[in-house]
Design goal:
about 400 residues, 10 helices
Length: about 400
Amino acid sequence: MATTLPAAEYATRLDAVRGRLADTDADAAVWFGATSIEYLTGFHHVPTERPVVLAVTDDRAEITVPRLEVERVRENPRIDGVHHYFDYPGGDPIRTAAEMLSERNVDAVVADSDGASGTMGYQGPPLSEFVDVETQGWVTRMRWEKTDSEVDLIRESAKWANLGHRYLADYTEVGAHPATVSQRASTDASRAMLDTLGSRYSVRVRGDGPVTAGYISGRETALPHGHTPNERLSKGDVLITGASADVDGYHSELERTMFVGDYTAEDEHYFELMLEAQTVAIDALGPGVELAYVDDEVTAYFEEHGVADLAQHHVGHNIGLGGHEPPYIDTGWADHCASEHTDLTESDATMAPGHVYTIEPGLYTEEAGYRHSDTVAVTDTGTETLTNFPRDLESNVIR
């Protein structure tokens, strides 16, 4: 039962970026992105208008944070020095980061961006006002292939997502409100997870529990990103569910199309087409397979059955620390990799061991949507489906 990432993983990641840094003319590598900082050091924070800046040299990792984060980061064993400004805009975060770099005699950096993003209204100078800056996307690319330890965390997430989804199905009934059913299922699954893991659970939430489970219903399901409607459930309602769990920052994704009490012949028709399309996609996955090929296979299946016009999105995406991560199972992925606007190569157009994908082809009529999503890891020899809630029609009817 994996609940935290081994400390050795962070050492390996820092070694990897230091190896890349050594191949440049820069004195340090810099990150502003919260997920990249978490990936390299394990320090996780909520991005606000207050920038956080991580700098890695050949022998040190130092960070600039707002005053309110000092105690949270000070004991981090991967970070050798902590610098802070009081707040924004009263403080001067980029100048503080520049002073941190100056203390290490850094004149040139490779950074994930030339300054902090405009989160929550932040506006500030570029880092290049103080040092020479070249951009890099090292961590974003490193995150594509998960290690065995990372996959273990996603596998654990999938286990608790499955429990949350089971509660969701159990609590759903005619007359219930989708919002309160979702809250109850999330709370009870979170309670079970926390009671089971105890002190082994690595806290990554603020107020909410680690398991989230919910759904959209009725006509909102016809919108791939629909919202929970303010209407109680009725017999015959279509549901599109979703469940996940946070395990040391890593996530899985489990979605099902379900029916309250009954379903129509039209529901059955589109459900079975969607289900077979998902099977086509899962069967097509594997190491060395072109990502565009999998999306093309699903599109061909939909075209064969005359429903391609009801598809509104690609087959899926990588998942891990982020809910959506590249690469994407999309018909245009190979062209994207070949584009002069990216630093990707032809080899980035194929799946590799350690990739973990959501597989979620969907069909959307004017009345309802039909989509399952499962989390599938690519292995050395094939694939492993990490989520395991039943996929067939009868298992997804709430009687």
